[in-house]
User: Fold these one by one.
Assistant:
Number 1:
Amino acid sequence: MRTRSKLALLAVAAWAPLSAQALNIFACEPEWAALARQLAPGAHITSATHAYQDPHYIEARPSLIARLRRADLAVCSGAALEAGWLPALQQRAANPAVQPGQAGMLFVAEQVETIGQVEHVPLGAGDVHPEGNPHLHLDPERMRKAAAVLSQRLAQVDPQQAGAYRSRYLRWSLAWQQRLDDWRQRARPLKGQRVVVQHSTFDYWWRWLGIEVVADLEPKPGVPPTPRHLNALVAKVEQNRPLAIVHSWYQDPNSAHWLAERTGIPVVSLPSTTMAEQGLETPAELFEYLLQQLLDAHHAD
Ligand SMILES: [Zn+2]
């Protein structure tokens, strides 16, 4: 018994310096926190937003400033997704490690190609980003590239663990490849299907699946649905007979339901990111769920 408690004490003593050194990772969105947990399970990881929040607009709360102040590495989508709140956080946190251009500040969209880049945003086009669509985590291929980038960045800010990050990424990547093959095969019946969306959140996912977007409940990117715009969509939706009217968990579902009542097209509410409390803890669980929801809608059709 005595030896045991002594051993336990020794174990605590051996752990203490390690946990004190654990890397602090600040993710702007839950998917990057989830990915970081896979690649750096020993790190302290927090996310600034959750699945029921619109990542385009959050408040720069003091608790977030404190968390960013402690961070060794910040991981965000970039492509101006966080333009409305992250700069204020960076400024108030005054943490040199996570300022723009530092190794500790990773904008995934700067490392992984985005779709929908435009050279000139026409006046009155709405919330269009010249850097392209920032919701790139919803492409399973780009998620893998993001994992490669993140593991390299982890090795850069925490060089003592570089070997561990590399081997963990390699294992993760192999498992991911198997999942990709499986998803690709199961997703085949969805190819050529059509959907109505609310915002460009899932554009990468539709593209990967070969699904066509026939209408957007937003009259312009980032502009909430208006009665006039919704009325104009009724005939278009009836003509195209899409698989579903899709909105994100964080969005008000009323517009989608309004259109569903008039057209008979079902509403599908999808998470745009991971959420452990809903059983979607890892990126793989998220994609699995997204795919299954759409396959269910297709089978019910
Ligand atoms: Zn967006």
Number 2:
Amino acid sequence: MITLYDYWRSSASYRVRIALGLAGLDWQAVAVNLVEGQHKTPAHLARNPQGLVPVLEIDGLRLTQSLAIVEYLDETRGLGLLPATPADRARVRAIAHAIAMDIHPICNLGTARHAVSASDGAITMEGWMQHFIGRGLAAVEAMLPGGDFCWAEGVTLADLCLMPQVYNAQRWQVDLADMPKIRRVAERLAAIQAFAAAHPDRWA
Ligand SMILES: N[C@@H](CCC(=O)N[C@@H](CS)C(=O)NCC(=O)O)C(=O)O
């Protein structure tokens, strides 16, 4: 049995849920409640010394880091999430990394909570999220060529990163009015079964 340790609102877990759906795999979810601190328990730290979700158990392996997991599924299940040429792969990875490596860590629950508590009220959770998600997505908007997907004519790694980030943006009321390319892609992706099935509302 394939097991995903995840949290419904975790955008890194959301990426992996989409990939599992695209692969058409049967899998079970085990919830790790981040709000209750379950990710810091010895049981979860034994799964992932970083104390983060997601963790995927598959093929006798225990994998961490959502992009590493998605690329593992891409390579072993032939998902075609990366384009054929090195130049296009670099472009797709650049969009994916702009989200997963630049926006996401700053807006992680642990990071944002620390900033709020260390600022003695000067920083609010909403203000932090709106600032960093807004600024990060504005750059992604400029990186997108424009079309139904983040890159060319189909789903790539970049789309698996964008959709959860758009969910987060909406959750924190980030204004996407000036981001028509992102809105168009998100609307197209929402119509794909694997994306719809991975939405946090289906896992709460
Ligand atoms: N780079 C990691 C990030 C994982 C990560 O930050 N997960 C978040 C949820 S989206 C988490 O577990 N946060 C717990 C915390 O911040 O304490 C990945 O892509 O898997």
Number 3:
Amino acid sequence: MESVASSSTPHPHHHHRPRLTAAQSFSDRIIRAVRHRLRLLHRSGSLFFVLGATGNVYTVNLSAAVSCSCPDRATPCKHIIFVFIRALALPLDDPCLSRRTLRPCQLRRLLSLPTAADSLATATLRDRFHQISAQARAGGGRIPRPPTVVPEEGAACPVCLEEMGREERVVSCGACKNVIHEECFLAWKRSCRRRSATCVLCRARWRSGGDDPDKYLNLSAYVNEEDMVEDGGCT
Ligand SMILES: [Zn+2]
Ligand SMILES: [Zn+2]
Ligand SMILES: [Zn+2]
């Protein structure tokens, strides 16, 4: 089943391809952090709000244990690396870069560094971010939702088969436009584990139709194409 020869991209040296060492994958992430058009939206205390390539906003927290809100399990992820080498302009050999935990003296030093101007998102995007996060705070911490999907009268949720009331939180599939309870969708998504979620009906890779149950604030609607273009053809 796991035949190397069946790979769609033949690789003449597959027998000798070395496993990526931790150091290699770390430098690989540094390259990605530099090449991807990540931008800093805001910085407040130990928190850095980073605009990712898809418009999602991730929160990097420089505390004793450095963390990021993105789903990437690699530590440090490219957003953390971005904060270190782009926003704070640390040299590549700075010892803080590869540390999972920071000592109080290191934290003080990092947080006292100025923000590199060229790491910042455009003023328009930063304004948008402040508006949207202020709305989110006013709305009890929930990310404001653009046009809410409303189920049709009497429509049943394809997961639990219950009728969806007008006051219930629902999401819709961007591909087939079917509406489903947000709660039912999130349960299904969790059951997909590491695989990316698909629509329960049409099996298309899940793209929300207007309403997104994801926890990230997303600014893609305000980012013009020029801002989103990546420098290289990297994945
Ligand atoms: Zn991250
Ligand atoms: Zn349901
Ligand atoms: Zn669908």
